[in-house]
Write a structure and sequence with these properties.
two-stranded antiparallel ribbon; mainly alpha; 58% helix; three-stranded antiparallel sheet
């Protein structure tokens, strides 16, 4: 039976005998409240979390474990044989940074990646400021460190020396993802897309090039343009920039003495195999000595072994090839390819444009850096002095890379199934002038009340 009370309808349920006034009052429920309780529409971003991408986590930890093994092989074995110090000194430092990196990974994985938009601007400004400071004389507790003719390191008080360019990679990716997500389809415009994009990225790339650090400059440029293109940047505008970029690169190399020498060595490392071409030639020898199965862990540092400069840093891939052979080298390359694949899948299934661009930038940064490092070792690129992510010895690179993967895992906890490349959303087509990304958001989530 239905009763009218003013303008509101009420549903009156049959009452058992003797239930009293309290039972009748409790059984009278407004129809509007009944409908609201039965079906409730929740709007706004919802965290429909699931497990993170386990393959990304396994790949990252596997690369870091390989790095610990190789750092010990290149530093601890020789020290133990020569009895010149603590053989575990180098590995202890790397292990400490690995622990900090894992902690950073866990924190960022548990953190909602959307909060990064709040700190994207100040983080980007701090990164640019540190890049400026590293080029200046010492200012109070800020002391730049020049190593190998390049001002790449910064000592802040009694803290360990850091590489500001590593922070700049992450800060630039976060800010670009935030800025391009706000731009939307205007990213394909010349005045509202390409010009401000160059204004944002140009100073960062120029400051790193002024250190000078050609390898990191290349990683920053490739990562930035990849994110810009995925966000909807015009391929024709980027193509027109190519001659300008090549001219700038040629001018930079011609006016930087040691970079020009590296290019000449790259063209013919055998012209001076004992001096300028020594590192390149030794790296190729190391890969050849390893063969298919390698000579064994630590064997490269035994008396009579192959001398390889910067074995624990830039040329650690050559040591992997020497000690673990072609199988070990292919395994490392396969891990980075798997990381690239899963990163692309996370970007395609991201719940919003910011997450998709952020995942794209992180994946491009780590994979481009690995590509350049391996390309240098196999003599496909000139020596750049860039590390192999998660594997090479180095604190700043390791911790920042772990933090970046943590952000990637945070995004992976909210990805939506999207099938294969052929199932992509229609708004990713270039004919519509829109980005190669998922839509701006997911549909409202309908939550039904439990009975």
């Amino acid at each position: 039976m239905t009763a009218q009370a003013g303008s509101r309808r009420r549903v009156v349920m049959p009452q058992p005998a003797g239930s009293g006034r309290l039972s009748r009052a409790a059984s009278t429920v407004p129809l509007r409240e009944t409908r609201t309780a039965a079906t409730r529409t929740v709007r706004g971003p919802q965290r429909e979390r699931h497990e993170p991408d386990h393959l990304v986590l396994v790949v990252t930890l596997a690369l870091a474990a390989m790095g610990l093994l190789m750092v010990y092989s290149t530093t601890g074995v020789a020290t133990a044989i020569q009895n010149q110090g603590d053989p575990f000194g180098g590995i202890a430092t790397q292990l400490g940074f690995s622990v900090l990196g894992v902690l950073a990974l866990v924190v960022f994985m548990r953190l909602d990646y959307r909060y990064l938009r709040l700190v994207s601007v100040p983080a980007f400004l701090v990164a640019v400021a540190l890049l400026v400071v590293v080029l200046l004389p010492a200012i109070g507790p800020l002391r730049p460190i020049i190593a190998g003719g390049s001002a790449r390191w910064l000592q802040i008080g009694s803290l360990p020396a850091m590489h500001p360019a590593e922070l700049a990679k992450l800060a630039m990716v976060i800010y670009l993802a935030h800025w391009l997500a706000k731009r939307g389809t205007q990213a394909g415009s010349l005045l509202h897309g390409l010009v401000p994009f160059l204004v944002i990225c140009g100073p960062v790339i120029a400051l790193v090039a002024a250190e000078p650090d050609l390898g990191t400059t290349g990683v920053l440029a490739l990562t930035a343009f990849t994110v810009f293109f995925v966000a909807g940047g015009s391929i024709w505008q980027l193509a027109m920039l190519a001659p300008v970029g090549l001219a700038a690169l040629a001018t930079y190399v011609m006016n930087t003495g040691y970079q020009l020498a590296r290019v000449e060595t790259f063209l013919d490392p055998w012209a001076d195999p004992l001096e300028r071409g020594f590192q390149t030639v030794q790296g190729l020898y190391a890969l050849g000595i390893g063969g298919v199965f390698g000579i064994g862990l630590g064997q490269s540092r035994l008396p009579g072994g192959l001398v390889l400069p910067n074995a624990q840093n830039d040329f650690i891939f050559a040591v992997i090839g020497q000690e673990f052979g072609m199988i070990g080298a292919v395994a490392v390359i396969g891990l980075f390819l798997l990381l690239a694949y899963r990163g692309v899948r996370i970007a395609l299934g991201a719940p919003d444009t910011f997450a998709a661009l952020l995942a794209t930038g992180i994946t491009a940064w780590l994979c481009f850096q690995a590509l350049i490092n391996i390309g240098v070792v196999v003599a496909l690129l000139p020596i750049t002095g860039i590390t192999l992510p998660f594997v090479s010895d180095g604190g700043s690179s390791l911790v920042v890379s772990f933090a970046a993967v943590g952000i990637l895992l945070s995004i992976s906890r909210e990805t939506l199934p999207r099938g294969t490349w052929n199932d992509a959303d229609p708004d990713r087509g270039r004919g519509y002038g829109r980005p190669h990304l998922p839509g701006p958001g997911r549909p409202p989530v309908v939550v039904r009340a439990r009975r």
